[in-house]
Amino acid sequence: MGFDSLCDISPASKHWSINVRVARMWDYCGTRDGQPPIHVDLVLVDDKGTAMYAEIPGTEAKKFKELIQENGVYSLKKFFVAPSKSSYKPFPAKYMIKFTPWTTVTNTEVVPKSFPTHVYNLVPFCDLPSRVGAQDYFTDVLGQIVGVSKLGHVRMSTNSSDTAKRVIALRDDRNTEVKLVLWGQRAVEFDAELVFDNGQNTAVVGVFVGLLMKSYNNDETLSGGSACRWYLNEDIPEIDSCFDRLGDDFAKVQWISTGTEKFAASRNRADLPRKTVAELRELDPWETEATDFLCTVSITSVAPEQPWWFQSCSKCHRSATSYGSEYRCSGGCVSTKAYPKYRLCLVGTDGTGSAEFVFFNRVAQQLVGKTVMSLLRSSGLPREIAAVVCQKYTLAVSVTQKSLSQRNISFQVNAIETFFGRQNSVPHDTRVSTILPLAMTAASSLDDSLTSSLDQVLDGPSGSELPVVIPELTMPAEDILKKAGPIRMPLRSLKRKEPEGAKTSKNLTKDAVLTSQNIDPDSIPRNASPPVKLASEVIAAGNEVHLHGKSPEVGVEDEADSDAKKRKVPPEATDPTSTVTRLPKKTGLKKGK
Q: What's the rounded Cα separation, in Å, for the pair 71 and 145?
């Protein structure tokens, strides 16, 4: 039976039949640790090398996860083809596949050796700074690993449990370095001990996919969560080229710090001084510019004269204005690229007074529950933003920079500490009689379907006074002379080091299998807060999607013979039964699950 190519399918029909490999598969749970997936994401590739993103709804996740395994090849029928989502895609694509309860999955037993196994969209290190704030698709990179950290744990300011963290230092062929931070289960799965041990004798080069480019305290790093995968010393053309360029001049892998001090809260926000709105308005901004306060307010309106988003410079994150086909940064930096970000100005009151509270990108996304890109198509004020009116919050705030030069003080929201839900009435501002209670105006005019996305996540009753702590999101840039390629250690086949005093041996033949450490997902520290975490991702872009790889299940002997011929190594060197032990050019490290 013939199959349709992924490059030919479209929403024009519902009767497609495809035969594809599941190159990647992961659960998307938002930030709700330990909860069922909202949807399961897949990267599919057919025998012609065409890749497409697919999504399994959370209600069908259990059924299809029993039928589909990563790296398996399957024929699929009875699915929808839809326009690709606008953000958080694995790679640029016009269409995506959506599974239905009726989708059929049939395992393909005979798989050609030429069937691609890897899908990636590499971005050069020099382009990574321009990807900070981009929200279209993930970033994939290639680099030599020059440093790894031990597994660390971070207690974020609004989290009640620790999050696993591991830092990896990557270097490109121009000696540019960038840090990659793995979080949660991915941090646990990365075998840093194995990488370090083998990185003393040979280079370790990897392709890392499914990453985000983030900035924290002006420190730009790559971030890897559930969508992240890695292919270390695999049979990939770009890795081969990197080894050829390195020659014998490679950097040994070093142990580096986890840098947890950068991500840990410098102060427990519960200890911040509490102020009423009236007390905040009496502050001298020149004396309290660097001080945070807690204030509990109900939102009364969205400032009508202020736009809810702005173009943010990709380098320094200040506002930028359009200048022809490029952008000009207001801060004077040389960047000519900009991306939309939140700047949401809301008026809030606690009955003692009213003030303007400004929510920027990350905190605004926590408040609204959606990304800027997903709301830009809305005409006028998006419904999701209008729905925050009459909601009550405890906010960690500080005075804004513009307050230093004007009489009316406004406040920047640095974190949402507590969410109380929709209020049946909003307190009168006892200082300004012109601000009216919104119980009979804004609240009654909002349709039930426009309730805040936070309400929907909480599944709690409207107007509930039960406080819910909202966790803070982890935010989350000449030709070389070709040298003789070094011997690539068989990292996938090496066994872990045995304790000192024990008899050690390394079998470098094909029958040697790396015994990786299996980690129970339930052993990862979970956030004990109620499941109200709201996802925030900043997506980075790349260029053309690259596909490469051979089926690991078929033609092992043929590949071994072919590889031996290319290296001019006698065939017996690839024979597991041979008494001659040789180092093959490469085999890959075990990739992330």
A: 25
CA dihedral (484, 113, 207, 472) in degrees, to 10, reads -170
String of DSSP letters for 124-139: -GGGGGGGTT--SB-E
Distance CA 137, CA 134 (A): 8
Q: What is the mean pLDDT of the chain?
A: 75
pLDDT at 491: 54
Positive/negative CA dihedral, 220, 225, 227, 230: positive
Rg (CA), the chain: 27
Name 19's Cβ contacts closer than 8 Å, sequence gap at least 6. 3, 46, 47, 73, 74, 75, 76, 108
Residue linked to tokens 């559930």: 226
Q: Kindly list the distances between the CA atom of residue 350 and the CA atoms of 280, 294, 437, 554, in Å, as whole numbers in the listed order.
A: 11, 12, 11, 68
> Cα(456)–Cα(461) distance, rounded to whole angstroms?
10
257 in helix, strand or coil?
coil
Task: Round to whole Å and give the CA distance between 511 and 534.
Answer: 46
Q: Is 45 helix (H, G, I), strand (E, B) or coil?
A: strand
- Pairwise CA distance, residues 584 & 202, whole Å: 12
pLDDT bin (cut points 50, 70, 90) of residue 446 is very low
